[in-house]
Amino acid sequence: MKPFRWNHDKNEALKFERGISFEVIALAIEADGLLDELRHPNTGKYPNQSVLVVAFDGYVYLVPYVEEPDYYFLKTVIPSRKATRDYLLRNNPDEKP
Questions:
Q1: Class of the 4-87 domain?
Q2: Strand, coil or helix: what is 48?
């Protein structure tokens, strides 16, 4: 897999606002936390973006990215209750996120 890159200022904002960072996401992916790769649902507005579905610490995060020739550029990190339900809890429907 290609290396990951991101905007330093955006990373600091994510740490402050959401308590997650691109470093944590990259480490989670390296530790087999990558659950899926999807095309961005809004291809009209974001034609070159795809979305990584990443599990970390019992929760699922959606990570939009752009694939460059030599690396993946991570755009943001979005915590997702719906993706947590769909990817982590589908085998145990009695458990709540």
A1: alpha beta
A2: coil
> 34: which 2 tokens?
């990558």
pLDDT single digits (tens) 42-76:
999 999 999 999 999 999 999 999 999 999 999 99
Q: Domain-by-domain residue ranges, the chain?
A: 4-87
Taking phi over 0 as left and psi of -120 to 50 as alpha, with beta for the rest, 67 belongs to beta
The model's pTM: 0.89
Contact 77, 18 (CB under 8 A): yes
For the chain, give percent helix, strand, coil, nearest 5: 30, 30, 35
* Listed residue (27, 53, 51) closest to 41, CA to CA: 51
